[in-house]
Amino acid sequence: MIQVTDLSLSLCTPSEWRPYVCDKPGCGRGYKYKSGLFRHVKYECGKEPQFQCIVCHKRFTQQQSLKSHMIYIHGFPVYNKPKNVENNLT
Length: 90
Prior knowledge:
Blueprint: H1 7-10, H2 14-17, E1 20-21, E2 30-31, H3 34-44, E3 51-52, E4 59-60, H4 63-72
Antiparallel strand pairs: 1-2, 3-4
């Protein structure tokens, strides 16, 4: 059973908490944030998955899904780029 902790969300209709809706015919997917709708239209809606695994050739609609697949299925190490690190060459 799902428990709603934020009462304001329980009083909203789905269209209120997912106000950004894809207007392509036959789709109608809704997103909470405009960026989610943008990603959907750019990479997913009416398109074949664009991101392909270099090991097993499985395809994904989102780059993050491919990254997770590479880590958890094929055991690729996680490399995070350091943020705001100065290159000190002394």
